[in-house]
Amino acid sequence: MTVRVADTTLRSEYTDALSTRWDDAEGYDLDSYPRSDFLASLSDKFGDAFRADFERALAAPDTRGPGDGVDPVDLLVLVAAKHGEQSYELNRWGESFGVASVGKFSQSKRRLEEIGLVETEKVQTGSVGRPRQRLRIGLDDLAGADAEELVGAMRSVLGCGPFEKR
Fold it and tell me: Distance between CA atoms of 125 and 86, rounded to whole angstroms?
């Protein structure tokens, strides 16, 4: 909305007052990393192909909807499954980078497993300790899917997409 003010003195005083308030205000640091740092960290930890798929998934038209957008943690778990990453590594990276807690990642993985989009396979890490879990795409017809198709499938199965459940 634009308000036109013919009185140049009033306009000048108003502009000066706002400029002074802006200049005198204290800065505010957001408690999050810049997107560029987040994406660079994805590349460093999981590789450029993972990062590119995650960016494509975020940009997919089905990612956001009015009030029912896809959870970014769900997207990370789904892209990690596409790339065969270990759940432990994703959880650890996500928590250390401040994306979400390990519990949130586990909850997302469990939900995606329950609907069949993600499955896990055990990976031995040595002779000691519990085996870790490698994430995999759970549906054979989505094994070679691109990021946009995965987002569409997730929205369809979760019932929050423009797509209907099959």
Answer: 11
Residue 21 CB coordination number (10 Å) = 9
Q: Enumerate the H helices of 5-86 as residue ranges.
A: 8-24, 35-46, 48-59, 72-82
Q: How confident is the model at residue 59 (pLDDT cuts 50, 70, 90)?
A: confident
| Rounded mean pLDDT, 18-32 | 84
The residues facing 121 across adjacent strands are 134
Q: What is the DSSP letter of 83?
A: T
DSSP H or E run through 122: strand 118-123
Q: Mean pLDDT throughout 96-117?
A: 92
For tokens 């450029």, name the residue.
Answer: 48
Q: What distance in Å separates the CA atoms of residue 32 and residue 16, rounded to the nearest whole number? A: 32
Residue 162 has pLDDT above 50, yes or no: no
